[in-house]
Amino acid sequence: MSQIIHFDPDQDFKARSRTAVNDPAQRANFRGAMDFLQAKRRGQFGDQDELAGLRAIGAAIRQNSLAKLPELLELLEKNLTANGIQVHWAETAADANAIALGIARRVGARNIAKGKSMVSEEIGFNHAMADAGIDAFETDMGEYIVELAGEKPSHIIMPAIHKTKQQIAALFAEKIPGVAYTEDVDALIRIGRQVLRGKFAGADVGLSGVNFAVAETGTLCLVENEGNGRMCTTVPDVHIAVTGIEKVVEKLEHVPPLYSLLTRSATGQSITTYFNMISRPRQEGEKDGPREVHLILIDNGRSQAHADEQLRATLQCIRCGACMNHCPVYARIGGHAYGTTYPGPIGAIVSPHMLGLNATYPLAFASTLCGACVEVCPVKIPITDILIRLRNEAQAGEEQASLRGSGAGRSALATAIWKGWSLIYSRLGIYRLTSWFISRGHKLSPVSQGAWTKCRTALKPAPKRLRDLIRERRS
Prior knowledge:
The protein has 22 helices and 10 strands. By secondary structure, the chain is α/β, with parallel strands linked by helices. It has a 6-stranded parallel beta sheet, with helices on both faces. A 4-stranded mixed beta sheet has the order 8-5-6-9. A hairpin with a 4-residue loop joins strand 5 and strand 6 (219-224).
């Protein structure tokens, strides 16, 4: 069972980051993986004009969907219901788990086969089912590996990217009965598939995520490479799909551009092995497919982002992970250091709406603001602008607060310092007097200056002010 990593403010994030930075093996693993993924993406977007045009189309599609979000969600529900798919609305993670548990109990489910779903990680689905005595098991190979290790995914596309083949070989030999240690990657994949294959047939319920939900046709689109998603959505008699409310698009014709951007940005593939389109449960006379299909639409803080014109862009995300693959901070500390379901740049801007800014504000400061994430985002999310907004929100007073947890990073000392700074720099006489004392007392500057001197030389004022030097030159 994968661990729920509860995020705690500043100190825990700093400790986790420090541990990661001081682990040379992990840093080497991530550096190699990020370099590989960056090269794969570059190979798919050789024509920069095509890329620019496709990004513009993708951004326009997502912005259109979000501008019409309430009406598109109603249309989606109407058409899904007409197709025979049951739609459920969940305001919180607990609501979503309760709905899924109610469905599972009604059909007497004892186990649930799960396709890859970051939203299910977000709501702690596996743990909620385990608490109710139901076994929810992962069938995606990466998810299966981290579940076996008792860990959480470190990347939204490649959950086990932090592990080497040697670590996986040792894990399989330890956790799977009768398996000998082998570093042969193909053999390791076969071992995992053999374990999972038998579980599909015995699954009472299948659970999946949703990449795109098409309002005009009532269609759920699922992108995958391994085939486990198709197994989870067709073999069990009941299929439960879970997704955030932002995944809706207006028309079926909007899907291909987003699909092209997603696959090429995520794993450097021109197309994935499987693209599933689910519009209804099994019909009379059909030989396979679930007899029931349910969609749980989850808010979990997304409405807060949608209500703000600037923060709404956060919801444009198609979960490709390109921002992580190009982020210098993520490449050095990995996904687990963030302590949230969604790590990296996208996690820093989406997590505050899910968990509150009071629990996640340090993530907004875990960025160089270099803009690499903005340059590669396939739907042109202005991530750095949003990070700056969240930094300001973290320091906001009660009168400026607009998000849940705003002002969490504000301290009385920092507020007093900035008020003093404002006073000094707005009064010429006070400024001259202050600068005179500082320059004359420059030798009294402390050697330790907090976070600044952890990796920099201590700041020391000049012994003479600029005005003093000019006066001397004139005399």
